[in-house]
Write the structure tokens for this entry.
Amino acid sequence: MSYATPPGWYPDTGTPGLERWWDGTAWTAHTRPPAAGPAASHQPSAPADPGPVQSGPAGFGPAGVGPADPGPGGFGPAESASAGFGPPSFPLPHQRGPHDGPGGGNRTKILAITLSGALVLGAAVTGVILLGRDDGGTPAAPTTTTSTPAPVTTPSATASASDEPDPDENPAVLVDQLNGVTVPVPEGWEKPKSSSSDVPTIRTVQSYDCPGGSSFCYHGTVTTHTARSTGTDPKALAEADITTAADLAYEEDSLGRRNHGGITSHKVLKAEQLSVAGRVGYLVRWQVTTGKGPGGYVQSVAFPSSVGTGTPVIVRLVFDADVTGLPLSLMDTITRGIRPLGDDGTSGGVGASISP
């Protein structure tokens, strides 16, 4: 059940002798003389002395309505107050002061905010004008900013900053940054950009069809590795690695191919201690006989790295047998040419003097 006062003409308590239109939610600016006759009999008459407009107990209707003035709908004062009938008690439109009536406070706040914003804007403009003047009070000339392209540094200028040659760019030296060693590259060999072993590698340039498989092989390869064993004794590491090196070269490669028909036998040609890259190392060399082809020679050299905590390094050398230009003496030459990374003795191209 709604207790809102219905729209209609009601006595204007601020202007006796006039009625003002109530739209159901607020007073409007429309007024008229009191209507005469039966049509206006349902409208409440204005009190003789309405006094100030006040809210009744329920917040509706003029407080000055007397017993002879029932509220809209025929209710008496008590019923009108309890049921909430009668127009709201806020002042009429022509009676509202700067802070009265619905929305009066909001309009005042909006006006105050607008004026404050205008004052702030004026102060900011004044400050800009004052800052734009020089010491004599004359407006300063506007400053035009133009962008200047950044200077371009050519690669040649950067490269000339260092006179040290980059060992990675030296075709005569294989560099293993991880293990901190370099290996000389013999004449007629290459440093492939990729290989199936995915480790630093040098190999002979020419390849051939493997005797026992559909793939292709190389007559000579040298690879460097980080020792996977937990031990640090170079002799034990070399003796354990030679079996792995021989199997990968002539038994079954990393892709599962038996390119040489497998190893049928092997013979130890050398096992000795030696100095490698300034460290004490150990060398083991085998000759292997294969099911197909001439077989070959396999060598494992183990020694402590010159970087980090000295993790052992393994260098594997594999030569096919009966190949012109691959004597066993070349294995010895390559082994002697292994250097710690950054050694001045290798930066000049040690591999250039190595030939089969």
